[in-house]
Specification:
- The protein has a domain at 1-43.
- It is built from six helices and no strands.
- The chain has helices at 5-40, 49-62, 64-70, 76-90, 106-112, 121-126.
- Helix 2 packs across helix 4.
Length: 138
């Protein structure tokens, strides 16, 4: 698709302006992080779970290299560690697990109903064979 030359020039001009604007915003946020670090001193920053989750999700999208360049409040390894724990917690089924085979849903059991004669189908089948198992071939 060929755009007219004037439109191409306008689009390039707009893209350059948007890029410069984004770079200015990023530079401001980097400087703001530096100021916050200076104000807080060398003390350890304490984040709550919601703050860790938000930083972890955003940090994972950036990646380790870019997080190192941004100069975050915490190290990239810490942020990515939070992300790993967040995902591990999401897919952890240990609270829902119990020993043994899962029980069948009641509606499935009730859909079969009671067999004729009120006995279990296995008992009905075994009734036809002698106790010594001589009738079982196969």
């Amino acid at each position: 698709m060929n755009l007219p030359l004037r439109l191409q020039f306008f689009l390039l001009l707009f893209a350059g302006w948007a890029n410069r604007h984004q770079e200015a915003v990023i530079d401001y946020l980097k400087e703001e992080n530096r100021v916050l670090k200076e104000l807080h001193g060398g003390k350890r920053l304490l984040f709550n779970d919601d703050q860790r989750r938000r930083l972890a999700v955003k940090g994972k999208a950036l990646g380790r290299r870019l997080l190192g360049e941004v100069g975050s409040l915490v190290t990239p390894d810490t942020i990515l560690g939070w992300y790993r724990r967040l995902i591990a917690k999401k897919y952890d089924g240990s609270q829902r697990r119990s020993p043994g085979r899962p029980r069948k849903a009641e509606e499935i059991v009730e859909s079969f109903g009671t067999p004729r004669g009120g006995t279990h189908p296995t008992a009905v089948t075994l009734r036809w064979y002698p106790p010594d198992g001589s009738g079982l071939e196969g």
